[in-house]
Amino acid sequence: MENLVRKLFSGTEYLSHRLESEELILELGAVQGESMCPHCDEKSNKVHSRYQRKFSDLPIKGHPTKVILNCRKFFCTNPSCEHKTFTENFDFIKPMELKTERLITEILRVSANNSSRKAKAILEEEGIKISKATICNLKNKIN
Do 106 and 74 share a domain, yes or no? Predict the structure, then answer.
């Protein structure tokens, strides 16, 4: 599991996993020593606080997958930056997003040539829980 996590979720480490009602819950921890302020591009290693971020990823072995990522907030060390704190970012998920880039890509791939109803049915067969409204919202985001 550790190798899989390293490949799929760069900048994290595997902590644990469990099955809850046929859903795979992965718990990961951030391992980046420092993070870059998205507002001024200054690097910082001064941790402000910690929090958990929860999001969905592609199914693993047919099980819908939820990820719990233990993240950190950092102090910005640039005195001229207007933002005093910021959250660390990861390559595999955008800030404030509830789905990984891989999951969004798969949803858009399946829904490209299908109605939202048909796409929902196909995705559910793959183990992806999603509503027709979410499919439409994701399609509208890219247009």
Answer: no
